Amino acid sequence: MASVLQKLITPLFTGTPEPPRNKVTVVGVGQVGMACAVSILLRELADELALVDVVEDKLKGEMMDLQHGSLFLKTPKIVADKDYSVTANSRIVVVTAGVRQQEGESRLNLVQRNVNIFKHIIPQIVRYSPDCIIIVVSNPVDVLTYVTWKLSGLPKHRVIGSGTNLDSARFRFLMADKLGIHSSSFNGWILGEHGDTSGEEFKNRYLIQEIICLSSYLALFCGCKVTNLFFNVQVM
């Protein structure tokens, strides 16, 4: 005998749902990962968003926070799990997971610890989304992008590191501010690795440390710049 709920609610669709066309996965739900996730949602870049992390309570909380705000968003489906099967059929995977850099520690000192983490993450991503494009944000990003390419077996044009995009955006703002123009009217790039040796002629280290001290981390800025890479990915 049908329950009252079954009588009142009739399913509108009973067939097999089509796989998402623009599914995006964010691996790692720390400050940078969630900044990327929010930026993806606000810029309407995905028809499904998946989150993955090893800390289940935090992962569930971040997922629920985004789901409860879905009334104001156009992304219909937001899912999360520590099992990588939730990432299946992703078009783009953003990797922000890894050990966070400690005060006074160089990015290169993070290499071995984060390589060990990537040895678990990357094969799982490729297993469930063999046709995806991977964007690496974790530090040291230049080394880990190379490691990701090797571990994944993907063509080199499908493994992208965020590189010095952040440094370049900061450089453009500071130069434009000095010239009294909008940053979109000034073009310039910081070259080299994303770390202590990037653009050594441009000494912005004290400014960066001040921003980190005042705002805890450069998460929102990072999220915006990472999602800006999506527009380059679309034309590949």
Automatic annotation (TrEMBL):
One GO cellular component, as annotated: cytoplasm
Domain of life, per lineage: Eukaryota
Keyword NAD recorded: yes
Keyword Transport in record: no
Residue ranges constituting the Lactate/malate dehydrogenase N-terminal domain according to the UniProt record: 23-161
Pathway: Fermentation; pyruvate fermentation to lactate; (S)-lactate from pyruvate: step 1/1
Catalytic activity annotation: (S)-lactate + NAD(+) = pyruvate + NADH + H(+)
GO molecular function annotation: L-lactate dehydrogenase (NAD+) activity
Keywords from the named record: Cytoplasm, NAD, Oxidoreductase
Location in or out of the cell: Cytoplasm
GO biological process, one term: lactate metabolic process
UniProt-listed Enzyme Commission number(s): 1.1.1.27
Annotated PANTHER family: L-2-HYDROXYCARBOXYLATE DEHYDROGENASE (NAD(P)(+)), L-LACTATE DEHYDROGENASE B CHAIN
Family listed: Belongs to the LDH/MDH superfamily. LDH family.
UniProt name for this protein: L-lactate dehydrogenase
Source organism of the structure: Poecilia latipinna
Source species taxonomy: Eukaryota, Metazoa, Chordata, Craniata, Vertebrata
